[in-house]
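About this split. The held-out portion is used to measure sequence recovery: a designer receives only the structure tokens and must propose an amino acid at every position. Recovery is the fraction of positions where the proposal matches the reference. Here is one held-out target exactly as it appears in the evaluation file.
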């Protein structure tokens, strides 16, 4: 069983408070000996600050699981508190691994909510190399500025590559971002605008 928990503080002096949405699925695949990175894709329509941490998994009735251990990486296993990138560098054995991520919501330095979600990582022995994504790591955009950012993906094994985008800017009601999902063999390119 997966454990899910949400705490939402309702305070009339703080204004509206909606739960953040986790846009990426809680099941992902990793390869033995390769660096694994997953981001839950959190979007908060209130624009509040978000932080992340790994916590112990819970089982039925919300009880902590006796004997639970965090996955072991040959180099490291952590979550970036600011970006939400979960990094496992690198899995050493095949199997199914469960972790729990707590997403905390902050406004004016005050914690006003949190979400706990379990995640499952399926680690396999892989002979395939992951595709490389090429784009600017960071861009600074002034509000109201139109951007057209090319995103490319290359696969050195010449396998089929599917490039798709997700995230909060694509879910806004007005002035939303666009990304055309695309698939191809070996190399694909799309435009984020």
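Reference sequence for scoring:
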């Amino acid at each position: 069983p997966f454990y899910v928990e949400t705490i939402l503080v309702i305070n009339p002096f703080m204004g509206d408070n909606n739960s953040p949405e986790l846009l990426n699925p809680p099941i992902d695949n990793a390869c033995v000996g390769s660096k694994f990175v997953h981001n839950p894709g959190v979007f908060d329509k209130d624009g509040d600050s978000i932080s992340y941490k790994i916590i112990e998994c819970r089982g039925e009735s919300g009880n902590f699981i006796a004997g639970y251990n965090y996955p072991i990486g040959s180099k490291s296993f952590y979550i970036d508190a600011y970006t939400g990138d979960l990094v496992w560098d690198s899995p050493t054995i095949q199997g199914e691994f469960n972790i729990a991520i707590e997403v905390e919501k902050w406004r004016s330095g005050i914690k006003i909510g949190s979400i706990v979600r379990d995640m499952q990582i399926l680690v396999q022995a892989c002979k395939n190399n992951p595709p490389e994504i090429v784009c600017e790591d960071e861009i600074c955009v002034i509000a109201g500025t139109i951007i057209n950012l090319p995103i490319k993906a290359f696969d050195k094994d010449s396998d089929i590559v599917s490039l798709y985008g997700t995230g909060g800017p694509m879910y806004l009601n007005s002035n939303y971002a666009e990304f055309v999902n695309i698939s191809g063999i070996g190399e694909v390119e799309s435009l984020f605008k």
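Annotator remark: The chain has no helices and 15 strands.
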